[in-house]
Design a protein that fits this description.
heterodimer, A: alpha/beta, eight-stranded mixed sheet, two-stranded antiparallel ribbon, 10 strands, B: alpha/beta, seven-stranded mixed sheet, six-stranded mixed sheet, globular
């Protein structure tokens, strides 16, 4: 299959953004228009006069991808050019769930026929690993560093899929770079359903999380296998499908130990209690979504 | 030059300024309208919504966005997809768009937007001045200011004509004073559909988002190329100068109405005193000029219709033989104590052979009424400048000392 996201981009080895972009285009095919907010993906894929995009692609600002996608969709409709063309927004967690929240909320409430794919690498990586609303509990980032009186980020991740479900989206799915086939299948399904659909892709960042560049997929799998990143689909507000963990279930330490952003939890005094809190988050996911 | 209006009485209606503009937008055949309500722009978007509800704008989508930021952001996508785009806003809404304004211009998307000029907060104030759009002068938008309702309406078609010109491809703001023009009823001609179709060709951009010809829009430019993008934006503004004149002339040929291109003049030829202004204040000054001319005072009016690109050459040619020039501003650059029309006119005359005293007077901020008396007093003071030189270069002309 021809890749519509070409090599030669400036992403790091093992870059999660490049992988999600590639899988998204494998799912969507040539008849699509992609909108990206500001972030690593935009910077590393379009250094003028070069581009990695073999589909029409537009970047405007950091916080407006939802609105730009709305505008593209409305224009195609108005001019009678919509046909089967898929309008896909593809942006990072900061651009989606923090600064871009208003714009994506508006787009979903209005019911535009768009698919929004959030590449969640759990911090502002393009600016040097600052915390975002998607940063997990106790992760050390440059603006939530672990220190003498801090175990890192004090809050759990914002539950963006639930927020999008509350907008009445017909299809929402979480997915992970650990399971590319699942990711492609869900993105394809999302683009084929009419209305605003949302894909939340868990995407480990080798640079920001601190693991070997060959381990992106392995780290992603462990997030799922520990229960920290549950994979599920929601149709019209109801969970319709989950990926069971079953016998693959791993303790959260297996996932946390692979990453520098959690290394303080294995050194600091009293960190054992923190590990229990993180395990409790995973256990709650397992219970809530029936992953066992 | 004079304002020429051969209004056909059979074609005349009495309409509100906002309705006239909404109607003008309709007959310009937009594909995407995206706007968020804000006083005093609301009547424009309400009228457009009603046109949509009545099926009167074919091949058009109206996006009822959740903010002004998204209003203009949506049009980035729409315009890049090849749509003729429209929005309207004012004051806080325009300030909220600030970041997107640069973006639309930098991406060379010829969006047209009406600004119902209003003061900015704090203190919050919904009445007219021009601080909102003047504060956006460096964002790379063409800015034109209308004198009355008919011009506000007709300027819409002219703005599309200039903005979409292949040698320009820059967005344009058409500015009308909030309430004073947006909420007033006047006899006027609603922009004629058949004539607009003759005047304004369909928008056919060279580059669009099209899966059959995939292109990248909004790439990032590092120091090796950024400067050249900015240079080309300035070049487009330079190109717009003659295009604005042409658009006004061609409009006159087809519609029989003319308001000036970059500027307009009234009784300036032998004037000792020239008053400069933008927007509805121009109408008041016309009356004052008539009144004072009847008394033998040689006063004239220079209407600045286009503020961006700044018509430096046209202004210079009008004021070069005057004895004093007074620029009137409904805005202030805090920390400089000058309005922008004054600052920029003064700056554009420096390094030229024109040596005429010029002063700035700020007035009408936050909707303060500008009676003829205020203008007459300014002219009286200007007479003193001719005889004994400049005393105060720039100041408020209608300050209430008792409130300080």
């Amino acid at each position: 299959m021809k890749s519509l996201f070409t090599s030669g981009h400036r992403g790091c080895a093992g870059c999660c953004d490049a992988m999600v972009a590639k899988f998204t285009l494998m799912a969507a095919g040539e008849d699509c228009i992609v909108i990206s907010p500001t972030g690593c993906l935009e910077v590393m894929s379009t250094p003028y006069p070069e581009t990695s995009w073999e589909v029409p692609w537009v970047h405007s600002l950091f916080e407006n991808a939802g609105a730009v996608a709305s505008g593209v969709e409305a224009a195609l409709k108005a001019m009678g050019k919509k046909g089967d063309t898929k309008v896909i927004a593809l942006g990072g967690d900061g651009a989606t769930i923090d600064i871009g929240m208003r714009s994506i909320s508006g787009a979903f409430e209005r019911g535009h026929d768009i698919t929004y794919v959030c590449i969640d690498n759990e911090a502002y990586m393009n600016t040097g690993v600052q915390r975002s609303g998607a940063t997990p509990f106790d992760a050390s980032t440059t603006t939530s560093p672990a220190g003498k009186v801090s175990y890192g980020n004090p809050r759990p991740k914002k539950n963006m899929p639930a927020i999008m479900a509350a907008h009445g989206s017909p299809y929402i799915a979480t997915t992970s770079l650990g399971y590319p086939k699942d990711m492609i299948k869900k993105i394809k399904k999302a683009t084929e359903i009419e209305g605003p659909t949302y894909i939340h892709a868990h995407a480990p960042c080798t640079t920001g999380w601190g693991f070997d560049t060959s381990k992106t997929v392995e780290v992603a799998k462990l997030a799922v296998q520990t229960g920290l990143w549950p994979l599920y689909e929601m149709e019209n507000g109801e969970v319709t499908k989950v990926r069971k963990i079953g016998k693959q279930k791993k303790p959260v330490e297996d996932y946390l130990k692979m990453q520098k952003r959690f290394k303080h939890l294995f050194k600091m005094e009293g960190a054992g209690e923190q590990l229990k809190l993180i395990q409790a988050l995973a256990d709650k996911n397992i219970e809530d979504f029936g992953l066992e | 030059m004079t304002v020429i209006r051969t209004l056909d009485k059979d074609k005349m209606d009495v309409a509100e300024g906002s309705y006239a503009v909404a109607h003008a937008v309709k007959v310009c055949r937009p594909n995407v309208i995206s706007a968020y309500p804000i006083t005093p722009q609301t009547h424009i978007v309400e009228d457009l919504s009603q046109f949509m509800a009545d099926g009167e704008i074919p091949n058009c989508e109206y996006i009822t966005v959740e903010s002004e930021f998204s209003a203009l952001s949506a049009l980035v996508g729409s315009a890049a997809a090849g749509a003729r785009c429209y929005s309207a806003t004012t004051s806080q809404g325009l300030e909220l768009m600030h970041e997107v304004l640069f973006n639309v211009s930098g991406m060379r998307l010829p969006v047209v937007m009406t600004i119902a000029n209003r003061a900015v907060s704090a203190p919050i104030n919904i009445w007219n001045d021009q601080q909102d759009s003047i504060s956006q002068r460096d964002t790379g938008w063409i800015q034109m200011y209308a004198e009355d309702l008919q011009e506000s309406s007709d300027m819409t078609a002219q703005a599309y004509k200039v903005a979409e010109d292949k040698d320009v491809m820059m967005p344009a703001m058409t500015c009308m004073d909030g309430f004073i023009l947006s909420h007033v009823y006047e006899p006027l001609v609603l922009l004629e559909q058949d004539l607009v179709d003759e005047y304004l060709p369909a928008y056919e951009p060279e580059f669009t988002l099209d899966p059959k010809n995939p292109l990248t829009f909004g790439a990032f430019a590092d120091p090796t190329a950024y400067t050249e993008f900015r240079y080309l934006q300035q070049q487009a503004m330079d190109n717009a100068l003659p295009k604005i004149e042409e658009a006004a002339n061609e409009f006159y040929e087809i519609f029989g109405r003319y308001y000036g291109g970059l500027i307009d003049e009234y009784e300036t030829e032998d004037a000792d005193i020239i008053l400069m202004a933008m927007g509805s204040l121009v109408g008041t000054i016309r009356d004052v000029v008539d009144k004072l001319r009847a008394k033998g005072i040689k006063v004239g009016l220079l209407k600045v219709r286009t503020f961006r690109p700044f018509p430096a050459e046209a202004i210079k040619n009008v004021v070069k033989d005057a004895k004093v020039v007074v620029a009137l501003d409904k805005n202030i650059s805090l920390g400089l104590n000058e309005g922008s029309l004054f600052t920029e006119t003064k700056a554009s005359l420096y390094n030229t052979k024109v040596d005429v005293p010029i002063v700035g007077r700020m007035l009408g901020h936050g909707g303060r009424d500008i009676p003829e008396k205020t203008i007459e007093d300014i002219v009286e003071e200007a007479k003193g400048i001719i005889s004994s030189g400049i005393n105060t270069e720039s100041k408020y002309a209608d300050l209430k000392e008792e409130l300080l």
